[in-house]
Fold these 2 entries.
Entry 1:
Amino acid sequence: MKIISVVNQKGGCGKTTLAVNLAAALSRVGKETLIIDLDPQAHATFSLGYWKKSSERKTAYDIFRSHIDGGQTPFAELVIADRQKMSFVPANMLLSSAEINLGGVDGAAAILFHALADPFFAKYDYVIIDSPPSFGFLTLNSMYAADMLLVPIDLSYFSFNSVNSVYRVAGLLNRETGRSPDIFFMMNIYDQRSNFAKILEREAREKLGQYLLSSRVRSSVRLREAAKLGKTIFEHDPKCSASLDFYNLTSEILGLDESELDTAVREFVLHAPKAGSVHVLGDFNGWKKGEASRLAQFENGDWSIHFNLKKGRHRYKYFIDGKWMPDPANPRTEANIFGSQDSILTV
Ligand SMILES: Nc1ncnc2c1ncn2[C@@H]1O[C@H](COP(=O)(O)OP(=O)(O)O)[C@@H](O)[C@H]1O
Ligand SMILES: [Mg+2]
């Protein structure tokens, strides 16, 4: 079983559309697929044509309820299996109360992870989780459970900030739990005629390398219609461009399981509460200072950035308010030709 969580703290970038139609495409190529709606707004549930009152049946909330009232979760009762090879666990507003009641509880981010380890779920080849547009308790559960994070980026509003935040939260989760899902980005609402989209795509590819999937989902009114009608794109219009895009995306995602990646993402974190601007420069970015080398500042005084590095040995250094400094968190240094020290990192 492979668990793919669709995340991005930005609303409207296409998480639900991606979760629902990726699940649908996986089921069409013969994979037994389960989609879990983890958003209290229940958009995935509606997109799958389920409009019944939430009080009438069990929902994703029941996965968390047992942690509040101590009971067992009846997994089989959560699942609606009204399509071939594609089932789903619906959501409703109650999920937001899980966010409130369990937010601070120890180990609460691992509830979904442990639930999915139950033998009941072993029959699924893929579990796709649709997450809410925030980095709260529910998204943390979604990320903790995941083998892979899939981040749709809306190229019409693309900013590196949302990319950095995903890496940042994944980094924190990794330090807390040791989990390290692969993180892939997908361009959604892609307008191939727009020059702007092409420029943004180039920038995104420079930053993300092979972690930016080559398949894109183009802008298509059919996707909006399908969601409104409670249908997947294949049920609504199997021959439209969006259906083709989702098939291509699915083949690429299936292929990832077989290919070996020759790069890895590394986070650079520097604690410098008083600094005004911090860059990391190294052989991996040609020692070139610019927007792409600038670290993002966080409230606790940390600065952070992520790079997709080729496997092998790298030299780098921080550039803080105009002054060079080796990485204080990295004991490995080596002299450079300028008579000072560079930090050395092996990926
Ligand atoms: N490729 C696309 N082309 C056109 N409309 C899209 C596309 N992807 C998503 N949408 C529409 O954009 C809106 C937001 O998408 P949604 O998947 O609900 O985003 P999120 O779950 O991230 O909030 C929905 O109305 C959806 O139908
Ligand atoms: Mg959504």
Entry 2:
Amino acid sequence: MKLSFLGAASTVTGSKYLIEHDGQRILVDCGLFQGFKNLRLLNWQPFHFDPASLDAVVLTHAHLDHSGAIPLLIRSGFRGPIYATPSTIDLCKLLLPDSGHIQEGDANFANRRQSSRHHPALPLYTEADARNALTFFKPLPFDKSINLGSMKLRLRLAGHILGASSAEFRTAKGSLLFSGDLGRPDDLLMRAPVPIEYGDTLVIESTYGDRAHSNESSSDALAKVITRTAARGGSILVPAFAVGRAQNLLFEIFQLKQAGRIPDMPVFLDSPMAIQSTSIYQRHRDQHRLSVAQCEGMAKVARISRTADDSRAIGQLNYPVIIISASGMATGGRVLHHLVHMAPDHRNSIVFAGYQAGGTRGAKLVDGARFVRIFGEDITVNAEVVSLPSMSAHADATQIMDWLKTLKKPPRQVFITHGEQVAADALRWRIEHELGWSATVPLLGQHALIDNF
Ligand SMILES: [Zn+2]
């Protein structure tokens, strides 16, 4: 079997792995590169393979760094099935058309300002491309096996966000497991990743491969920053991934309010997609830990702003509020308008609740930038900027190691992906020294030949 690492290799985004085995060509994940410009430019390169020659795509979960290039794949000739869990498909119905819409908006903005070298600037893909791509999705429930040529495919619960799975491939001779994005066993909302059953070869993520989540609970940290900001008369802006982080935040805030641990200030959920994905969480209760009452509490704790006018109106309020708005790394979306408005005021706080990929505005703010460029203007940052990695949806290094230890028989090899070089290599070191297994950090475009599969 030949396994090629075509994305998320020595970086976090752009997940894309090609399996070639026994006449079958299967692509696992087809994500967008995000963050640094030299990575984003890779989205415009042709695929390293002929998309029409693929037999199937397997999608581990809905986040755009795993799913966001699927519309391009269809536009480039792929016509086969895209297997994903039913809840991943529900979330993709929101995320992919929205991504197309954002691409079109970016191209229009570039054309108005003539800021692109290309005339006219074209979108990477359109909302219509994304809607067309959705017709190729085929639901594959968790733990149900299907045959792909001589391989059996099974999707296993990985926690992280609704629908997130590890993808397990088995033949008569061996097995190959992609962790996908691995959730944390102590996540407030999502269930813990299930133990590994088969994994002769492992491809594992390493987003936090060099870090430990803080011992301070995320609710304590959140309560502190909300309370001190409100005390100085400021508002709190939380850029949050519409799918996953927004729901965790709503639930944390709901609990803090119930316990009287934060002032009873208004909360606004300013992301149409987060609003819809909250109701998808309510529909798929078997995958998370919340009761019906808790789901309702989560959904009702925030006032909802649906239209752009609603969104602008929140910006005009002159008393302390909490605003949750996408995108999570402040790369686009409604959160940008709030940043323009809120970042210059020292009374406010900007709270990051998830991983910030290098090169994004989120990463710059967390690193202490005093200015960020938004809509072509430099915006001064006087607000307090707080990062709460303890709210992350990813397992930390020790939690990844603990998950690996659920394997009964040592694997033949481990490939470490989906992490910056430093994080991936730190995890490689731990796996080699603490477990005695052979581990490799592949580079983008590398491939491995795997026997016994
Ligand atoms: Zn993810």
